[in-house]
Design a protein that fits this description.
By secondary structure, the chain is of the alpha+beta class. The protein has a single domain, classed as Metal Binding Protein, Guanine Nucleotide Exchange Factor, Chain A (Beta Complex), CATH 2.170.150. The protein contains two helices and nine strands. A hairpin with a 5-residue loop joins strand 1 and strand 2. The chain is globular and about 40 Å long. 34% of the residues are buried.
């Protein structure tokens, strides 16, 4: 788990390129670790077969069959597609210690992971809808 925010990722873009690619909410969440309000994102109650991909680079992050209703108002998953796609970073902001999760390919902020999820992992990846895109054609 990393404490550092200054990592180089395989996909790197200028701030102007990120602003051109992402809408304002996606930009604030993915590039500045903002959080969308609970129960407002387009995927919090979305349960359809497919894959959820990083909004920044298209990396597949989560399979729909790992998604569950945590009641928290954000998309929640009990596991990423594999351990390589997610970076875990210690987040000490707001007077708390949490574990931020980022795309390991482009560094986009996704959300946080908590140790209160269901089996088999016991983890809850609480992800902003603004950080992901859904691909229903991939199974």
């Amino acid at each position: 788990m990393s404490d550092q925010a200054d990592k180089h990722y395989p996909v790197e873009k200028t701030d102007a390129e990120w602003r051109d690619q992402l809408d304002p909410m996606q930009y604030q969440v993915a590039r500045h670790a903002a959080t969308e309000r609970a129960f407002t994102g387009k995927y919090w109650d979305h349960f359809v077969p497919g894959q959820y991909r990083c909004i920044g680079c298209g990396t597949t992050l989560f399979e729909a069959d790992t998604k569950f209703d945590a009641g928290c108002g954000w998309p929640s998953y009990f596991a990423p597609v594999n351990s390589e796609v997610i970076e875990r970073v210690v987040d000490r902001q707001h007077g708390m210690v949490r574990v931020e999760v980022r795309c390991n390919n482009c560094g986009s902020h996704l959300g946080h992971v908590f140790p209160d999820g269901p089996e088999p992992t016991g983890e809850r990846f609480c992800i902003n809808s603004a950080s992901i895109d859904f691909d229903g054609s991939a199974e």
